[in-house]
Automatic annotation (TrEMBL):
Gene3D superfamilies: Oxidoreductase, molybdopterin-binding domain (3.90.420.10). CDD domains: arch_bact_SO_family_Moco (cd02109). Residues 1-25 are annotated as: Disordered. This is Molybdopterin-binding protein. InterPro entries: OxRdtase_Mopterin-bd_dom, OxRdtase_Mopterin-bd_sf. It holds the Pfam family Oxidored_molyb. Residues 39-183 form the Oxidoreductase molybdopterin-binding domain. It comes from Ktedonobacter robiniae.
């Protein structure tokens, strides 16, 4: 069953005059949905897709695609902000909250490392993915999430720059110590708050 949800800073439909206050510094409004990837687009068959919780957990947890689809899904309306300076307002997603997933394991972790098909990783403090601030989404605008936008499933962390919303996500590794991910190790900011313009290391 789906429940409606509007993330912090990502409100329902607003009047046109309200758009300016929803776009972080240095960003511009994008009506389309640019496709940006660090490598080729994976096309993982649903029959072989799975999602795992690994690392410092009492027991690793794994879901097949069919099992993942039975988890409680939520509707999420969010504004998203890319480090390349575009922002897109009122995007609509459906997925499972990271909080719901982490309730399935016991752990003492302080960070999560999202890992994806193609070798991509990104790191997040646990506090940034709890409190209904992050989801693993499998639908966009009422349709299955297409591969070019990270399907069959991607991480969605809309309050941070969009590189933190890892495409083609296959799991979360829970860790006690922070570990820079793919872009973070190449000079991107470790946190990525668009309202503070945390684009690159030192911002």
């Amino acid at each position: 069953m789906s429940n409606g949800f509007v993330s912090r800073g990502f409100r329902g439909r607003q009047k046109p005059g309200d758009e300016r206050g929803r776009i972080p510094p240095g960003q511009y409004l994008e009506r389309g949905f640019p496709v940006l990837s660090a490598g080729p687009t994976p096309h993982t068959p649903l029959a072989t897709w799975d999602f795992s919780l690994l690392g410092e957990v009492d027991q690793p947890k794994r879901w097949t695609w069919d099992a993942f689809r039975t988890l409680p899904h939520e509707m999420v309306t969010a504004d998203i902000h890319c480090v390349t300076k575009w922002s897109k307002l009122d995007t609509h997603w459906e997925g499972v909250s990271v909080e719901t997933l982490l309730e399935q394991v016991a752990h003492d972790a302080k960070y999560v490392i999202a890992f994806s098909d193609g070798g991509y990783t990104t790191n997040l403090p646990l506090e940034e993915v709890l409190g209904r601030k992050a989801w693993v989404v499998d639908a966009y605008e009422g349709q299955p999430l297409p591969p070019e936008h990270g399907g069959p499933a991607r991480l969605l962390v809309p309050h941070l720059y969009f590189w933190k919303s890892a495409k083609w996500v296959r799991g979360l590794r829970l860790v006690a110590q922070d570990e820079p991910g793919f872009w973070e190790s190449l000079g991107y900011n470790n946190h990525g708050d668009p309202w503070k313009e945390e684009r690159y290391r030192g911002d």
